[in-house]
Amino acid sequence: MMKLSNLKYLYVCPILVMFLNPYVVISISDVKSSFLDAIATNFSFPSVIAFGDSILDTGNNNYLETIVKSNFKPYGRDFFGGKPTGRFCNGRVPSDFFAEILGVKESLPPYLDPDLQIEDLLTGVCFASAGSGYDPLTIERSSVLSIDDQLSMFKEYIAKLNEAVGEEKTNMILSKSIIVISMGSNDISGTYFRSPYRRFVFDMDQYTTILIDQNSKFVQELYGLGARRIGILSLGPVGCVPMQRTIEGGSERKCVVEINEACLLYNSKLYSSILTLNATYPDARFVYLDTYTGLNAFVQYPKLFGFENGNSSCCGIANVELGPLCNSFVLKMCEDASKYVFWDSYHPTDRAYNLLTSDAIKKTIHQFI
């Protein structure tokens, strides 16, 4: 089998290089003020549409029979109104920030929300489902929406748009909107590393190739339905999330190198796949959105970005609290989540997501045009 430990990757963090002075602290207001004005002035997109997993899910799992839920406190305590919405975060997630930064709306509603109005559909919705992945075994383990389920709902969504505003306007919305995809971390960190079924059959090189092939197939299906501006998030340093460090990081809770190397291998193949897609479909824009570099910088140098903690979660004392285990009865809950990189044992905080999304858009916005 291929040994990932023999692979070497060179990742340069542009954010870190720009702010090597340890006395410089990056704040949300530093990133957003003039940046949002510039985006609103120079770019215009009718809607934002999201597919994937818990990184982007804004509440679809609330309407599913699954244990993969977060529609209870303390989740959502920093969201509008301080209410839990099904987002795996203390506040908003990247799909929301994409919508806000691109000047569409403050948050992205889940498609399965029964109270959606046509105005909500016209400006974009979220099809993502926490716990989802490209591997069918990932779906079986969590009973959530597969990528095929999300695609079927998207087709239903298109039909609703056609009925409401006509085919011509619907086609315009689809071709001009920003589509965001985030998926793959559950496949690698859960299905591959936490169960024996795939590891006995595939090495990591083979497995990541299968995942990338599924991603490429899905992106091309979106293209066939009219999407033309598609951004795909890389995997983050999943080996550095609090849960992985607690379970596999030893007494010092170090980042799990094997998992991070798998994520980097996946990312390198994703980048190459996106280059191929752009060459194959010159009338479309497929964009690689790097989140690994930024999140890794937050983890390694938290104080540089205004965080006080980069290796533990705000919710919980054991650093394994996630979903039902991150609840109102946990023994520890931080007072200010903005000082933490991670909200629960797997997901970043609202502030971390805001910084990561702002940086990704700033670096790639012209690639969508």
Automatic annotation (TrEMBL):
<comment type="similarity">
    <text>Belongs to the 'GDSL' lipolytic enzyme family.</text>
</comment>
<dbReference type="InterPro" id="IPR008265">
    <property type="entry name" value="Lipase_GDSL_AS"/>
</dbReference>
<dbReference type="GO" id="GO:0006629">
    <property type="term" value="P:lipid metabolic process"/>
</dbReference>
<dbReference type="Pfam" id="PF00657">
    <property type="entry name" value="Lipase_GDSL"/>
</dbReference>
<dbReference type="InterPro" id="IPR036514">
    <property type="entry name" value="SGNH_hydro_sf"/>
</dbReference>
<dbReference type="InterPro" id="IPR035669">
    <property type="entry name" value="SGNH_plant_lipase-like"/>
</dbReference>
<dbReference type="GO" id="GO:0005576">
    <property type="term" value="C:extracellular region"/>
</dbReference>
<dbReference type="InterPro" id="IPR050592">
    <property type="entry name" value="GDSL_lipolytic_enzyme"/>
</dbReference>
<dbReference type="GO" id="GO:0016298">
    <property type="term" value="F:lipase activity"/>
</dbReference>
<protein>
    <submittedName>
        <fullName>Putative triacylglycerol lipase</fullName>
    </submittedName>
</protein>
<dbReference type="InterPro" id="IPR001087">
    <property type="entry name" value="GDSL"/>
</dbReference>
